[in-house]
Amino acid sequence: MLNLKKTVFFFVIALALNAPFTAHAKPVLDIKEITSERGLKAWLVEDHSVPVISLTFGFKGAGAINDPDEKQGLARLLSNTMDEGAGDLDSQSFQKRLRDLSIALSFSSARDNFSGELKTLTKNKDEAVRLMHLALTEPRFDEEPLERMRAANMARVRSSLADPNWINARLFNDVLYGDHPYAQNSGGSLTSLAAISRDDLIAKHKTLSKDKLVIAAAGDITEAELAEIIDTLFAGLPETAAQGSFTESPSIKDSAVFVYERDVPQSFLRIAWPGIDRADPDYQAAQVFNFIFGGSGFGSRLTDVIREQNGLTYGIYSYFQDYDYADHLVVSTSTKNESAAQMLSLIKQVAANITAAPVTDKELQDAKTYMINALPLTLTSTDQIAGTLLSLQFDERPIDYLDQRQAAIEALTPEHIQTVGQRILNTPSLSVLVGKPELTTSVIPLTELPNVD
Amino acid sequence: MIYLKLILCVFTLLTFNLTAAFSSALAQNTSVQDDAPREKTFNAESFLLGNGMQVVLIPNHRAPVITHMVWYKAGAADEPDGISGIAHFMEHLMFKGSGDLGPGEFSKKVRSLGGNDNAFTSQDYTAYYQSISKDELETVMRMEADRMRDLSPPEEHVTSERQVIIEERRQRIDNNPAALLGEQASSALYLNHPYSDPVIGWKHEMEELSRNDALAWHSRHYAPNNAILIISGDVTLDELKPLAEDIYGSIPSRATPPRRWSTLAPRNAEQRLTLAHPDVQQPQISIALTIPNITDDKQTALAMDILSEIAGGGPTSRLYTSLVVDQKLASSAGFRANTYTRGPGKASLYATPLPGTSPENIITALKAELEKLATKGVTEQEVADAKTRLQDAAILSRDSLTGPAMIFGYGLMSGETIDDIEYWPYDIEALTLNTINQAAATWLSAESLSERQPVISILLPQATPEDK
Prior knowledge:
The complex is a heterodimer of chains A (453) and B (468). Chain A is of the alpha+beta class and 453 residues long. Chain A has helices at 4-14, 74-81, 91-100, 125-137, 143-160, 164-177, 190-195, 198-205, 223-234, 283-295, 301-309, 340-356, 361-373, 382-394, 401-410, 414-425, and strands at 32-35, 41-46, 52-59, 104-109, 114-121, 213-219, 256-261, 266-274, 316-323, 326-336, 430-435, 444-446.
């Protein structure tokens, strides 16, 4: 299942602009906005070199954030069952039709948004559109596949209980987001998954309305063909549907270190600081800051010190966890229990260094070059391109955003990067460890694992 | 290197991806007349440098970018006794200084040019790659050639990197009960064969790996005549050839040791491995057995591709339909066969039991499916559908920059030729129902398994007093 948040995250770290750093002659992507006869809009990048079409769409704000606490996992279960039988086709008939025609059709639910993805060979395009339309407008939610998907999700939760990283994420979200819906387990808990009924799915399905819809396509399809297809595809969806209202998630008041004890040889760690919203004027500076701090993996300050110089971990990364109602910078890593104290103190030291002095000119130049030149590498298949177009629309970016962004990145100075680093890191942080970390500082023990049972 | 995703898990990762990768290697149009010229799938071009290094170019002009890969015919299965993990450790140390670059500078330089790089190790090979703007192709070729020629990792970096691979082992294996069990199962399955040792190495041997072990490994295996250069992307043969001849062609060839691996001994007893672990709440069952690989027996191996497609993954496959949809014993189930290996091929069946289903019930059901496949075979219609899907997968595989380069790497490393890969769809198309069912009967029937007894892995929660 495609995780949309991951797409966005990837996009953010790897996103850059026009190929050569200085040349503006050609846009990064030749994106066209089309409008159908019935007034639907879509973004398209045409490429006829391979007979494949990727079409993706999303319902903004219809994701897991709306799940009632006692029914967390509802959006996920909806995404799992919409392709399990529709119209006159039961689950096995529907899936067999997809398989026989090599059509990839799926739905996915992220924290904020709910999406659908379709990838097909050009020769099977009409049937692909018909099946997606059926799944969107006439899902059956038959008992047999619903129970099967429920059981598979519960098995997934039980399997994940052997994964310290997954356990860490449950605790981290709970500590970080408190009473906000982002604290929930978007994949559901054993109790909540059991509580979701067919009626819940039917009601949730009705919230997928045209007023929340954004559409993107790439590959072997013309503007006129796409215009026609989307009118067929989305015919019959409700024009509007109620939308929950949410507030920003709570801010971090005081620094704290939480530990959930688990008998494993290696501790898993996440640390959060406040992030930078995508509408913030410092947004591009923050992206570059993150790249240098820990976003790039090799070459980043964190990897240099913690992996290369001290051999403390196999991987350490920083990334922005950007949601509609929360923004955090997160560092994630793991190390043997005996090194946990050293790990925490080295991360602190790297954070202190990067805020104490401007990054070097070379670091900044290298980061700019990467963020600009590596973009085409993330746009080498039709599904990657369509996914990027969808993210831009979710984020309410202008159609020439990829080109605009280049200028913004080029203009950044070491001082600006330092300032945004201070804005993020000179604030309280929350740390969550899972394992048997040997620590010297005072910690808050966690004994309950929330949103799992 | 070393990043979490692609790496090493090597063997698991490979086993997992191979069939899919090869499914991708399919042609568009296979229903051709006998005398019609066969169409290639990827239109790859190839030549040999004077020093024996093979070069493969897969043209892709969609975007001005390339993927540049060097694959060495040396993997964990080539390791001498006592230094398990050295092939993978070498992979890490290749980033620790070569040519003009100091420790850690290789990846930094690639990033600074706007590219991504990484590497991965398996039982059969070790591979390095960069994806980058076509304008930087020459630069990354020179960097890669430098570290083929000579390596200069400082001792203190060897020491810290050894800690990194041990942390990697903790993260991938020691912290993960399913991976711990998988490691034991491979060790049992590949009796008397080097695949029985994990690619990442046994921890107590990893702790002793030295700089000298690594340098000896490098000089023994990292020769141009023991490597294949694969480039996918926006470059032509005329542009590539002089660069390859100048950059890689100038490295002298060296004698490399013959790859003589110990061979599988008969497995006369079925083996059941049970790991009951306090962290486990969801049982998992799998049954593994060895089968011929693509060079041992091409027809059987190709038949296994079709059989996996029919019995294997996907919600309408035989195993899923039977165990999950109809019998309601499991929440997932599948079958896969991987024959694109230099050593033994492997077939496995697996299932995640629903609460209330005992492991014994699952094992019985999985064995029944295997026996049904072997004795009753598959139908003409199932075969026709599977062939169509595999052909479609070929077209879809071309919607990628790096995917086709991986397909060639896997294939060539397993001993296939370029033509085997280009024309695979025709070979699949040519398989008859009889050949496929014969392969199932010969290699999967209970009778045929007398000297290839399966290894059954059972992952369980640790029993508690009020155990269910």
